[in-house]
Amino acid sequence: MECMVNYHLARVPFWNGKESVAMANAEKTREMIASLKTKVKNRWEEQNGIY
């Protein structure tokens, strides 16, 4: 899924790039990946008895 961040960043225009839809999609994808990593880590710790 991390490759999707690069996919969106490749489509960011040179002008006004920070406010573009592609940049917003890249940021949303980064946030989604971070939340999934947290969920996976918590689930792994619960299953392996690590708190």
The quaternary organization reads as single chain
Number of domains: 1
The total of helices stands at 2
pLDDT averaged over residues: 89
Number of strands: 0
Tell me the major beta sheet.
none
**Which segments are poorly predicted (pLDDT under 50) over 5 or more consecutive residues?**
none
Strand content: under 5%
Radius of gyration: 15 Å
Shape: rod-shaped
* N-C termini distance: 27 Å
Structural class: mainly alpha
Helix-strand topology string: HH
Helix content: 55-70%
Tell me what you see in this structure.
There is one protein chain. With 51 residues, the chain is an all-alpha fold. The protein has one domain (2-12, 21-47). It is 69% helix and 0% strand. The protein contains two helices and no strands. It has helices at 2-9, 21-47. Helix 1 (2-9) packs antiparallel against helix 2 (21-47).
Secondary structure: elements and pairs:
Layout: H1 2-9, H2 21-47
Helix pairs in contact: 1-2
Question: What keywords describe this structure?
Answer:
single chain, 51 residues, mainly alpha, 0% strand, rod-shaped
Concise overview:
With 51 residues, this protein is mostly helical. It is 69% helix and 0% strand. The chain has one domain (2-12, 21-47).
